[in-house]
Design goal:
Blueprint lengths: L3 H13 L3 H11 E8 L4 E2 L2 H14 L3 E12 L2 E10 L5 E11 L5 E8 L2
Parallel strand pairs: 1-6
Antiparallel strand pairs: 1-2, 3-4, 4-5, 5-6
Helix pairs in contact: 1-2, 2-3
Length: 118
């Protein structure tokens, strides 16, 4: 996977996928086995930990989804993209942030560091 738009689209899809098997398959396709995620509220240091972390976020925000905002900035093995967490019923934004990612040689995510913007 080398297309940054596809990579970020899969990343967002993982956060929104509520079926555990499908989410695990997306994680395996999108993240390296030793992938790491860190933001001010949570962290995960393997595919299993990232899956558990996302499941916890979904349980905390059951009627919300992540949406990509704006363009993706990318060069070499680095990316930056923004997102928002919105209520699916009325579109109200709860959170917004910017994530910085490192892409492994095989085109999958090896690390993501998230920052909350609002």
């Amino acid at each position: 996977m080398t297309d940054t738009t596809t990579l970020v689209d899969h990343y967002v899809a993982i956060w929104n996928e509520r079926d555990a098997e499908q989410r695990a398959a997306l994680i395996a396709e999108t993240w390296t086995e030793d992938g790491a995620y860190l933001d001010p509220l949570m962290s995960g240091n393997s595919a299993a930990e990232i899956d558990a972390m996302i499941e916890g976020a979904q349980l905390q925000f059951p009627r919300h989804e992540i949406r990509k905002l704006g363009a993706i900035d990318a060069y070499n093995d680095r990316m930056r993209f923004s997102w928002e967490l919105v209520n699916v019923d009325d579109g109200t934004r709860l959170l917004a942030g910017t994530d910085f990612a490192t892409v492994a040689e095989d085109g999958r995510l090896s690390a993501v560091t998230g920052f909350l913007d609002e």
